[in-house]
Amino acid sequence: MKMFRGMLLALTPAALLAIYYYRMQAVMLIGVGIISAIVSEAVFQYIFKKKPTFTDGSAAITGLLLALAVSPSTPLYVLAASTAVGIVAGKQIFGGFPQNIFNPALLGRLFLIYAFPGALTPWLTPVDMVSTATPLQNFRETGVMAPVWNLFTGNVPGSMGEMSAAALLLGAAYLIYKKYANWRIPVSCLLAVVVMALFTGQNPFFHIFSGSLILGAFFMATDPATSPKTDMGRWIFGALIGVIVMSIRLWGWLPEGTTFAILGMNYFVPFINTETKRIIEVKKQQKEQQASAQAANG
C-alpha cells in the first residue's frame, strides 16, 4: 500500500542515522527485525490459510519500528522473537490490518521488556559504543538534563531510532505532509507534555526530544488501525498519551513510559470512538433542531 511505503520512507532518516552511529550492529538489527516480521506474517497466514498480505509493507514497518525501538546491544534472537510476537499476537490474531487494536511494534517491545528484562541493556554511546546511562535515566537518578542540542542532533545513548529528534521530525513532517498520519495526535500529545513540564518546572524541550516520545507520537500513536477515527477522539487520545508519559517520567518507577502510554490508550480507542461519535451526533441534532426552530419562528 502507498501509505506503508510512505511510512518506510519516513523512517529512512532515523534508520540511516542509526546505521551511521552503530554500523553493522544496526544493520543486523534492522535486517532481523524486518525479516522476522515478514516471515512471521507469511508463516501465520500460510498455516491458517489467510489471504497473504506480508508483501504490502505493513509487516516491514512493524519490524523496522521495533528494531529502532531497541538498544544497539539487544541480541538478535531477542529482537526476532519479540517481532514475531508483535506480528502474531498484536496483529494477525485480530484478523490483520486494520482489525488489530494494539500497535504490533509496541506489543512486541512490551513482550521484550518482560520476557527479556535485561536485553535492552547496556545502552551504548553513538560511534564509540561505550556503555552508559540514557538521558532519562540520568535525569531520574541525578536530576540533570542532557543538553537539548545533543538530544536534537542525536549525540546521546538510547534506542537506535530515538537518538536524533531531527531525523525523526524530518520523517514525521513527510508523514504529515502526505497525510499518512493525522497531525492532531502528535500535536495534542506534545502539547500535553509541554503543559505538564512547565507546570512542574521542567524544560519541555528536554522531555519532547528525549526518550521515545517523538518516535511514539508520530510513528506509533498515529497508526490508523489503533487510533481514534474522529478528530475529537484524536485530540483526547494524543493528550492522554502525553499525560501518561509525563506522569510515568515524573512520578512512576520507570524513566520512560511511551510504550505503556500508547498501548494503554489503544485499549480505550473503541470507547473513545463510540463516545465521540455519539457526542458529535448529539451536537449535530441540536444544531438541526435550532435551525428548524429559527426557520419556524422566522
Quick summary:
By secondary structure, the chain is mainly α. The protein contains 12 helices and 2 strands.
Could you describe the 3D structure shown?
- The protein has 298 residues and is mainly α.
- It is 68% helix and 1% strand.
- The protein is built from twelve helices and two strands.
- A two-stranded antiparallel ribbon has the order 1-2.
- A hairpin with a 6-residue loop joins strand 1 and strand 2.
- Helix 1 crosses helix 3 and helix 3 crosses helix 4.
- The chain starts with a helix and ends with a helix.
- The mean pLDDT is 93.
Q: What is the CATH C-level name?
A: Mainly Alpha
Number of strands: 2
Give helix and strand order, one letter per element, not per position: HHHHEEHHHHHHHH
- Gross CATH architecture: Orthogonal Bundle
Separation, N- and C-terminal Cα atoms: 52 Å
Instruction: Give the overall shape, derived from the CA principal axes.
Output: globular
Order of adjacent strands in the largest pleated sheet: 1-2
Radius of gyration: 20 Å
* Share in β-strands: under 5%
